[in-house]
DNA sequence: ATATATTTGCCAAACTTCGACAAGTCAATT
DNA sequence: AATTGACTTGTCGAAGTTTGGCAAATATAT
């Protein structure tokens, strides 16, 4: 049930010696929720990523990338055709570029 | 608002000279819903894909792949970091194999 | 035992998607 | 220009899912 995003933000938070209690209010949530987010049981709202990145002194694009990757993974995690589906959108996105 | 899945099943249906009116009841829905599904405004339930594949004489894996690709695309379609996120899960899925 | 940090369980509120129906458009036919 | 048949669109309540907030539980250190 772990997520790459959750693991990353926990690592960053702990690295900065911050407690859930300190970070959660900055995101207007309680510690229980942030705990769940770090453990991948809840999703942080997309629009809160920049704020969290600044709190954790991280690159917001890096965090967003992990967050998106988790959303994608959720869809294909139990699908044997997952890789194939990924190839299909990869193509589609390439074509759409610019 | 088009989806690859929707375009495909419409193409197949039309190719078989079937009307929405004929196909929809086999999926236990009305024509309006199937029309929306073909136009990408509603999602077919994952578990109905095999039945639809058999109605349309298509390979169910092929349809499922497109269906999954549409779900993935929905997440990254407006994201400039989409390709990066896709690379990230692609890696993750490779590692998980077997 | 107490204090602090985190986790878990629960449930109502908020949000999203779906199903069903009615009314609408469009093209061909009479 | 009225009718018919195929498909589309809009609406709206129902059903389903996710979230937020609280209280209690656990864990660890003092």
TrEMBL record, chains A, B:
It comes from the Bacteria. Gene3D superfamilies: lambda repressor-like DNA-binding domains (1.10.260.40). Residues 9-63 form the HTH cro/C1-type domain. It holds the Pfam family HTH_31. InterPro entries: Cro/C1-type_HTH, Lambda_DNA-bd_dom_sf. This is Helix-turn-helix domain-containing protein. It comes from Mucilaginibacter rigui.
């Amino acid at each position: 049930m772990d997520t790459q995003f959750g693991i990353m933000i926990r690592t960053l938070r702990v690295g900065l010696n911050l407690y859930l209690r300190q970070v959660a209010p900055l995101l207007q949530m309680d510690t229980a929720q942030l705990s769940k987010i770090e453990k991948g049981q809840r999703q942080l709202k997309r629009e809160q990523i920049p704020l969290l990145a600044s709190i954790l002194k991280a690159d917001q694009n890096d965090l967003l990338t992990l967050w998106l990757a988790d959303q994608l993974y959720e869809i294909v995690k139990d699908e044997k055709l997952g890789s194939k589906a990924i190839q299909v959108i990869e193509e589609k996105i390439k074509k759409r570029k610019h």
